[in-house]
């Protein structure tokens, strides 16, 4: 890319480091012409195809704001949401495709959100999966109950050993 100061078409990399989550590389660059220093961040492109057909870059911020609504009044912090958005990004990047359906992002949110807060999970699922009746809620709640029971059994079994 061009030097942002003098528009020289070339630059030299003087330092490069991978971000903590391993999803991006930050490079310190220096312009050989004016000596100006600047940084670039490189990430593999990941685009989301919205239901309307519009394509936009994946954004953790958007994941967080979508989930934040479902978490109103719940004991969920911004740090929790940031962690959730990161695991959603990792999950969708693991599919190996650079373009994903908005729908798949919703799916990738459900698992970690359920671990985070079951009430928020039910709220999010009811919107995302378009619950239409009380029965839909009952089915989802029953599924949570069954899983609780299974986990408790697994826990008890582990204690016996
Ligand atoms: Zn320059």
UniProtKB/TrEMBL annotation:
The keyword Ligase does not apply. InterPro entries: ATP-cone_dom, NrdR-like_N, RNR_NrdR-like. One of its GO terms (biological process) is negative regulation of DNA-templated transcription. PROSITE patterns: ATP_CONE. Keywords: ATP-binding, DNA-binding, Metal-binding, Nucleotide-binding, Repressor, Transcription, Transcription regulation, Zinc, Zinc-finger. GO terms for molecular function: ATP binding; DNA binding; zinc ion binding. PANTHER family: TRANSCRIPTIONAL REPRESSOR NRDR. Negatively regulates transcription of bacterial ribonucleotide reductase nrd genes and operons by binding to NrdR-boxes. This is Transcriptional repressor NrdR.
């Amino acid at each position: 890319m061009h030097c942002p100061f003098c528009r020289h078409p070339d630059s030299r990399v003087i330092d490069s480091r991978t971000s903590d989550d391993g999803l991006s590389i930050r490079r310190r660059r220096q312009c050989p012409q004016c000596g100006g220093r600047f940084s670039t961040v490189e990430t593999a492109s990941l685009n989301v195809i919205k239901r309307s057909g519009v394509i936009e870059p994946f954004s953790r911020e958007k994941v967080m704001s979508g989930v934040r609504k479902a978490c109103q009044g719940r004991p969920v912090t911004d740090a929790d949401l940031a962690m959730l958005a990161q695991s959603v990004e990792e999950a969708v990047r693991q599919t190996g495709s650079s373009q994903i359906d908005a729908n798949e992002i919703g799916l990738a949110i459900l698992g970690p959100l359920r671990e985070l807060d079951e009430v928020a999970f039910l709220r999010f699922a009811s919107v995302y999966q378009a619950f239409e009746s009380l029965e839909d809620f009952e089915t989802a709640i029953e599924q949570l109950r069954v899983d609780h029971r299974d986990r408790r059994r697994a826990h008890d079994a582990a204690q016996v050993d």
